[in-house]
DNA sequence: AATTTGCGCAATCAAATAGTTGCGTTTAAA
DNA sequence: TTTAAACGCAACTATTTGATTGCGCAAATT
């Protein structure tokens, strides 16, 4: 398995989903984030690293602290995919409609 | 990590996302699905197993063939989460708006 | 009846993940 | 200046994942 770094990978983990939610409110440091969970700082740090690689999060150094900002725009990738899916599904139902329509026409 | 079986896990893999897309058009057998990719039947079968456990897909036995149907409803779980996220984000901007509003009021 | 086809299942393997522990570095506080 | 806090990074472990191979069973085909 090649290491994938995309939004879908990012949100696959429940802790990361929680971190994303946390960061919607505002930028936080790894310690601040870890305080909200039962996770250790290092564990959070690893997730932040992945989220950074997925470009869902940016770092901002402030003195000895690093503030992690959410890049909410990246979440649109999920929306885009969902939209594609829904369009395909709609088309499928259109086809079904066509079939049903034809059945109606052929009725005696 | 306890094995999670949720929609987020299901869509984390690109092959599984492709399978989901394929199944929007209609139910297919593992072999039929495998024909659309460079994946082997067994590899596809494993993904189908996961998708089944995630309840994104249902099996329907027809003789010696098994047709895999998409349970499109399950995809709403993703939408729900995205919606939650967007609401949180909106609230954040509301707060920002309040702050900006106050800054304006304090202007000379 | 013999063969082929479609499939699940188990065993196996390499790579990735999630997590921990233990550094070292830089910045801030005493 | 010494000490403490906030990190990143590397090493290490257990667990999961994605994929392959080979087997066996049941349903079609011949």
UniProtKB/TrEMBL annotation, chains A, B:
Pfam families xrefs: HTH_20
Chain ranges of the HTH arsR-type domain: 1-90
InterPro entries linked to this entry: ArsR-like_HTH (IPR011991), HTH_ArsR_DNA-bd_dom (IPR001845), WH-like_DNA-bd_sf (IPR036388), WH_DNA-bd_sf (IPR036390)
Record GO terms (molecular function): DNA-binding transcription factor activity
Signal peptide: none
Ranges annotated as spanning the membrane: none
Full protein name: ArsR family transcriptional regulator
Organism: Algoriphagus lacus
